[in-house]
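Input record (one chain):
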Amino acid sequence: MVRKDEEALVSVVIPCYKQAHFLPEAIKSVLAQTYSGVEAIVVDDGSPDNTAQVAALFPGVNYVRQQNRGIAEARNAGFRASQGNYVIFLDADDRLMPDAAKRHLQCFAENPSAGFVVGDIDQIASDGSYLSSPRWPVLTSGFYEELLKANHVANTIAVMFRRGVLEAIGGFKTFFVPAEDYEMLLRAGRQFSSAHHRTVVAQYRRYETSTSHKGAIMLRAMNRVMQLQQPIVENSPTLRKALGKGEAYWRDHFGAAAVKEVYAQLVRCKLFAAAKSSAALLWYVGWRLIVLPWTRRRRIFRIIRERFAYSQKLSSDS
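The corresponding structure, as predicted from the sequence alone:
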Protein backbone atom coordinates (compact mmCIF):
# COMPACT_ATOMS: atom_id res chain seq x y z
CA MET A 1 0.00 0.00 0.00
CA VAL A 2 1.15 3.55 -0.72
CA ARG A 3 1.71 5.55 2.43
CA LYS A 4 -0.24 8.79 2.68
CA ASP A 5 2.76 10.70 4.04
CA GLU A 6 6.16 11.18 2.47
CA GLU A 7 7.87 8.30 4.28
CA ALA A 8 7.86 6.00 1.23
CA LEU A 9 11.31 6.11 -0.33
CA VAL A 10 11.62 6.14 -4.13
CA SER A 11 14.90 4.84 -5.58
CA VAL A 12 16.01 6.00 -9.02
CA VAL A 13 18.63 3.73 -10.59
CA ILE A 14 20.82 5.32 -13.29
CA PRO A 15 23.11 2.92 -15.19
CA CYS A 16 25.89 4.69 -17.07
CA TYR A 17 28.30 3.49 -19.75
CA LYS A 18 30.11 6.01 -21.94
CA GLN A 19 27.44 8.63 -21.23
CA ALA A 20 29.07 10.79 -18.59
CA HIS A 21 28.37 13.84 -20.77
CA PHE A 22 24.61 13.28 -20.30
CA LEU A 23 24.78 12.07 -16.70
CA PRO A 24 24.55 15.50 -14.97
CA GLU A 25 21.16 16.13 -16.57
CA ALA A 26 19.86 12.75 -15.42
CA ILE A 27 21.09 13.24 -11.85
CA LYS A 28 19.77 16.81 -11.65
CA SER A 29 16.35 15.63 -12.82
CA VAL A 30 16.25 13.17 -9.91
CA LEU A 31 17.43 15.71 -7.34
CA ALA A 32 14.84 18.20 -8.60
CA GLN A 33 11.85 15.96 -7.81
CA THR A 34 8.99 17.73 -6.04
CA TYR A 35 8.56 14.59 -3.92
CA SER A 36 11.20 14.72 -1.20
CA GLY A 37 11.71 11.03 -0.48
CA VAL A 38 13.96 10.18 -3.44
CA GLU A 39 17.42 8.59 -3.62
CA ALA A 40 19.65 8.44 -6.71
CA ILE A 41 21.90 5.45 -7.43
CA VAL A 42 24.43 5.81 -10.27
CA VAL A 43 25.82 2.51 -11.52
CA ASP A 44 29.11 2.89 -13.38
CA ASP A 45 29.13 -0.13 -15.69
CA GLY A 46 32.91 -0.13 -16.09
CA SER A 47 32.67 3.04 -18.13
CA PRO A 48 36.00 4.31 -19.54
CA ASP A 49 34.95 7.97 -19.27
CA ASN A 50 34.67 10.23 -16.21
CA THR A 51 31.43 8.82 -14.84
CA ALA A 52 32.90 8.57 -11.31
CA GLN A 53 33.99 12.21 -11.30
CA VAL A 54 30.60 13.38 -12.54
CA ALA A 55 28.73 11.40 -9.90
CA ALA A 56 31.05 12.80 -7.21
CA LEU A 57 29.88 16.33 -8.07
CA PHE A 58 26.50 15.55 -6.52
CA PRO A 59 26.65 14.94 -2.74
CA GLY A 60 24.27 12.28 -1.54
CA VAL A 61 24.24 10.31 -4.79
CA ASN A 62 24.97 6.63 -4.19
CA TYR A 63 27.75 5.61 -6.61
CA VAL A 64 28.31 1.97 -7.50
CA ARG A 65 30.99 0.71 -9.89
CA GLN A 66 31.20 -2.72 -11.48
CA GLN A 67 33.09 -4.33 -14.34
CA ASN A 68 31.34 -3.86 -17.67
CA ARG A 69 28.45 -6.35 -17.68
CA GLY A 70 25.85 -4.52 -19.73
CA ILE A 71 22.76 -2.52 -18.91
CA ALA A 72 20.70 -5.40 -17.52
CA GLU A 73 23.29 -6.25 -14.86
CA ALA A 74 23.90 -2.57 -14.17
CA ARG A 75 20.20 -2.05 -13.43
CA ASN A 76 20.14 -5.14 -11.23
CA ALA A 77 23.21 -3.91 -9.33
CA GLY A 78 21.53 -0.55 -8.80
CA PHE A 79 18.40 -2.24 -7.51
CA ARG A 80 20.43 -4.31 -5.05
CA ALA A 81 22.08 -1.12 -3.78
CA SER A 82 18.76 0.71 -3.44
CA GLN A 83 16.61 1.06 -0.32
CA GLY A 84 13.37 2.36 -1.77
CA ASN A 85 9.85 0.99 -1.47
CA TYR A 86 9.44 2.00 -5.12
CA VAL A 87 11.95 1.95 -7.96
CA ILE A 88 12.42 3.84 -11.24
CA PHE A 89 15.05 2.91 -13.82
CA LEU A 90 16.38 6.00 -15.60
CA ASP A 91 18.95 5.76 -18.39
CA ALA A 92 21.87 8.15 -18.11
CA ASP A 93 20.94 10.01 -21.30
CA ASP A 94 17.32 10.61 -20.26
CA ARG A 95 15.60 12.91 -17.77
CA LEU A 96 12.74 12.72 -15.29
CA MET A 97 10.11 15.43 -15.12
CA PRO A 98 9.96 17.22 -11.73
CA ASP A 99 6.61 15.66 -10.72
CA ALA A 100 7.44 12.12 -11.91
CA ALA A 101 7.74 10.45 -8.49
CA LYS A 102 4.80 12.38 -7.06
CA ARG A 103 2.45 11.52 -9.95
CA HIS A 104 3.46 7.86 -9.95
CA LEU A 105 2.76 7.61 -6.21
CA GLN A 106 -0.60 9.28 -6.70
CA CYS A 107 -1.44 6.65 -9.31
CA PHE A 108 -0.44 3.91 -6.87
CA ALA A 109 -2.68 5.49 -4.20
CA GLU A 110 -5.60 5.42 -6.64
CA ASN A 111 -4.78 1.83 -7.71
CA PRO A 112 -3.58 0.04 -4.55
CA SER A 113 -3.56 -3.40 -6.23
CA ALA A 114 -1.18 -2.30 -9.02
CA GLY A 115 2.30 -3.81 -9.06
CA PHE A 116 3.65 -1.07 -11.30
CA VAL A 117 2.40 2.20 -12.77
CA VAL A 118 3.09 3.71 -16.18
CA GLY A 119 3.14 7.33 -17.34
CA ASP A 120 3.89 9.09 -20.63
CA ILE A 121 7.13 10.40 -22.11
CA ASP A 122 8.24 13.15 -24.44
CA GLN A 123 11.05 12.53 -26.91
CA ILE A 124 14.00 14.90 -27.07
CA ALA A 125 16.97 15.25 -29.41
CA SER A 126 20.61 14.74 -28.49
CA ASP A 127 20.90 18.43 -27.55
CA GLY A 128 17.85 18.19 -25.28
CA SER A 129 15.45 20.02 -27.60
CA TYR A 130 11.87 18.80 -27.91
CA LEU A 131 11.04 16.32 -30.68
CA SER A 132 7.63 14.75 -30.16
CA SER A 133 5.05 13.40 -27.71
CA PRO A 134 4.20 9.81 -28.65
CA ARG A 135 1.20 8.39 -26.84
CA TRP A 136 0.26 4.79 -26.16
CA PRO A 137 -3.15 3.47 -25.04
CA VAL A 138 -3.99 3.77 -21.36
CA LEU A 139 -4.54 0.10 -20.49
CA THR A 140 -7.23 -0.80 -17.96
CA SER A 141 -7.23 -4.60 -18.32
CA GLY A 142 -5.56 -7.48 -20.16
CA PHE A 143 -2.09 -6.11 -19.46
CA TYR A 144 -0.09 -9.16 -20.51
CA GLU A 145 -2.24 -9.74 -23.60
CA GLU A 146 -1.85 -6.16 -24.77
CA LEU A 147 1.89 -6.18 -24.09
CA LEU A 148 2.20 -9.29 -26.24
CA LYS A 149 0.67 -7.44 -29.20
CA ALA A 150 3.08 -4.52 -28.88
CA ASN A 151 4.91 -2.72 -26.11
CA HIS A 152 2.21 -0.37 -24.85
CA VAL A 153 4.66 1.10 -22.35
CA ALA A 154 6.32 4.20 -23.76
CA ASN A 155 9.67 3.27 -22.26
CA THR A 156 10.97 1.68 -19.07
CA ILE A 157 11.85 5.15 -17.79
CA ALA A 158 8.09 5.87 -17.69
CA VAL A 159 7.48 3.08 -15.13
CA MET A 160 7.61 2.95 -11.35
CA PHE A 161 7.72 -0.52 -9.76
CA ARG A 162 6.90 -1.70 -6.31
CA ARG A 163 10.04 -3.19 -4.80
CA GLY A 164 8.26 -6.48 -4.13
CA VAL A 165 7.42 -6.87 -7.82
CA LEU A 166 11.08 -6.65 -8.85
CA GLU A 167 12.04 -9.08 -6.13
CA ALA A 168 9.35 -11.52 -7.25
CA ILE A 169 10.21 -11.50 -10.96
CA GLY A 170 13.99 -11.44 -10.51
CA GLY A 171 14.91 -8.20 -12.28
CA PHE A 172 16.39 -7.95 -15.76
CA LYS A 173 17.74 -10.93 -17.75
CA THR A 174 20.97 -10.44 -19.69
CA PHE A 175 20.00 -13.10 -22.25
CA PHE A 176 17.46 -10.72 -23.80
CA VAL A 177 19.63 -7.59 -24.13
CA PRO A 178 18.88 -5.16 -25.78
CA ALA A 179 15.19 -6.10 -25.39
CA GLU A 180 15.61 -6.96 -21.71
CA ASP A 181 13.27 -4.17 -20.60
CA TYR A 182 10.38 -5.44 -22.77
CA GLU A 183 10.93 -9.02 -21.58
CA MET A 184 10.92 -7.88 -17.98
CA LEU A 185 7.69 -5.92 -18.51
CA LEU A 186 6.08 -9.04 -20.00
CA ARG A 187 7.00 -11.00 -16.88
CA ALA A 188 5.71 -8.22 -14.64
CA GLY A 189 2.51 -7.83 -16.68
CA ARG A 190 1.85 -11.56 -16.57
CA GLN A 191 2.10 -11.75 -12.79
CA PHE A 192 0.89 -8.34 -11.62
CA SER A 193 -1.70 -5.77 -12.59
CA SER A 194 -0.63 -2.29 -13.61
CA ALA A 195 -2.15 1.18 -13.76
CA HIS A 196 -1.56 3.81 -16.42
CA HIS A 197 -1.83 7.58 -16.25
CA ARG A 198 -1.44 10.41 -18.73
CA THR A 199 1.20 12.44 -16.90
CA VAL A 200 4.46 13.04 -18.78
CA VAL A 201 7.00 11.65 -16.34
CA ALA A 202 10.20 11.52 -18.40
CA GLN A 203 12.06 12.73 -21.47
CA TYR A 204 13.56 10.07 -23.72
CA ARG A 205 16.58 11.11 -25.79
CA ARG A 206 16.62 9.87 -29.39
CA TYR A 207 19.66 9.91 -31.69
CA GLU A 208 20.95 7.88 -34.60
CA THR A 209 23.40 5.76 -32.61
CA SER A 210 20.83 4.62 -30.04
CA THR A 211 20.16 0.89 -29.85
CA SER A 212 16.54 1.24 -30.96
CA HIS A 213 17.83 2.28 -34.40
CA LYS A 214 19.86 -0.93 -34.78
CA GLY A 215 17.27 -3.04 -36.56
CA ALA A 216 19.25 -6.25 -37.03
CA ILE A 217 20.26 -6.44 -33.36
CA MET A 218 16.73 -5.69 -32.22
CA LEU A 219 15.28 -8.34 -34.55
CA ARG A 220 17.43 -11.00 -32.90
CA ALA A 221 16.62 -9.82 -29.38
CA MET A 222 12.88 -9.55 -30.01
CA ASN A 223 12.82 -13.01 -31.55
CA ARG A 224 14.31 -14.39 -28.31
CA VAL A 225 11.71 -12.58 -26.24
CA MET A 226 8.77 -13.76 -28.33
CA GLN A 227 10.05 -17.34 -28.51
CA LEU A 228 10.05 -17.44 -24.71
CA GLN A 229 6.35 -16.54 -24.63
CA GLN A 230 5.24 -19.48 -26.80
CA PRO A 231 5.09 -22.19 -24.09
CA ILE A 232 3.42 -19.69 -21.76
CA VAL A 233 0.52 -18.94 -24.14
CA GLU A 234 0.09 -22.35 -25.78
CA ASN A 235 -3.07 -23.23 -23.82
CA SER A 236 -4.82 -19.92 -24.48
CA PRO A 237 -6.19 -19.16 -27.99
CA THR A 238 -6.54 -15.48 -27.04
CA LEU A 239 -2.93 -15.15 -25.92
CA ARG A 240 -1.66 -17.17 -28.89
CA LYS A 241 -3.42 -14.73 -31.20
CA ALA A 242 -1.95 -11.77 -29.31
CA LEU A 243 1.52 -13.31 -29.57
CA GLY A 244 1.11 -13.74 -33.32
CA LYS A 245 0.20 -10.08 -33.68
CA GLY A 246 3.20 -9.11 -31.58
CA GLU A 247 5.61 -11.23 -33.62
CA ALA A 248 4.35 -9.64 -36.85
CA TYR A 249 4.50 -6.16 -35.34
CA TRP A 250 8.12 -6.46 -34.21
CA ARG A 251 9.23 -8.09 -37.48
CA ASP A 252 7.76 -5.20 -39.44
CA HIS A 253 8.93 -2.51 -37.04
CA PHE A 254 12.56 -3.58 -36.69
CA GLY A 255 12.62 -5.07 -40.18
CA ALA A 256 12.02 -1.57 -41.54
CA ALA A 257 14.76 -0.25 -39.24
CA ALA A 258 17.12 -2.96 -40.51
CA VAL A 259 16.42 -1.98 -44.14
CA LYS A 260 17.46 1.58 -43.33
CA GLU A 261 20.49 0.19 -41.53
CA VAL A 262 21.56 -1.84 -44.59
CA TYR A 263 21.21 1.24 -46.78
CA ALA A 264 23.36 3.35 -44.44
CA GLN A 265 26.01 0.63 -44.21
CA LEU A 266 26.19 0.30 -47.99
CA VAL A 267 26.52 4.05 -48.42
CA ARG A 268 29.47 3.99 -46.00
CA CYS A 269 30.99 0.96 -47.77
CA LYS A 270 30.62 -1.18 -44.64
CA LEU A 271 29.97 -4.28 -46.71
CA PHE A 272 30.52 -6.87 -43.97
CA ALA A 273 28.14 -5.07 -41.63
CA ALA A 274 25.59 -4.74 -44.44
CA ALA A 275 25.88 -8.48 -45.11
CA LYS A 276 25.25 -9.29 -41.44
CA SER A 277 22.23 -6.99 -41.29
CA SER A 278 20.89 -8.46 -44.52
CA ALA A 279 21.29 -11.98 -43.13
CA ALA A 280 19.28 -10.99 -40.06
CA LEU A 281 16.58 -9.57 -42.30
CA LEU A 282 16.33 -12.77 -44.31
CA TRP A 283 16.38 -15.00 -41.23
CA TYR A 284 13.93 -13.14 -38.99
CA VAL A 285 11.70 -11.34 -41.50
CA GLY A 286 11.76 -13.72 -44.45
CA TRP A 287 8.98 -13.30 -47.00
CA ARG A 288 7.57 -10.31 -45.08
CA LEU A 289 10.41 -8.30 -46.62
CA ILE A 290 8.15 -7.75 -49.62
CA VAL A 291 5.59 -5.90 -47.52
CA LEU A 292 8.02 -3.66 -45.64
CA PRO A 293 7.99 0.06 -46.53
CA TRP A 294 11.03 -0.07 -48.80
CA THR A 295 11.33 3.65 -49.54
CA ARG A 296 15.01 3.09 -50.36
CA ARG A 297 14.54 -0.09 -52.42
CA ARG A 298 15.88 1.28 -55.73
CA ARG A 299 18.77 3.08 -54.09
CA ILE A 300 19.78 -0.03 -52.12
CA PHE A 301 19.80 -2.19 -55.24
CA ARG A 302 21.72 0.50 -57.15
CA ILE A 303 24.37 0.72 -54.44
CA ILE A 304 24.66 -3.08 -54.32
CA ARG A 305 25.24 -3.16 -58.10
CA GLU A 306 27.80 -0.36 -57.87
CA ARG A 307 29.67 -2.02 -54.99
CA PHE A 308 29.66 -5.38 -56.80
CA ALA A 309 30.89 -3.81 -60.03
CA TYR A 310 33.63 -1.98 -58.13
CA SER A 311 34.81 -5.15 -56.38
CA GLN A 312 34.82 -7.00 -59.71
CA LYS A 313 36.93 -4.24 -61.25
CA LEU A 314 39.44 -4.44 -58.39
CA SER A 315 39.68 -8.20 -58.87
CA SER A 316 40.29 -7.90 -62.63
CA ASP A 317 42.88 -5.13 -62.17
CA SER A 318 44.81 -7.27 -59.73
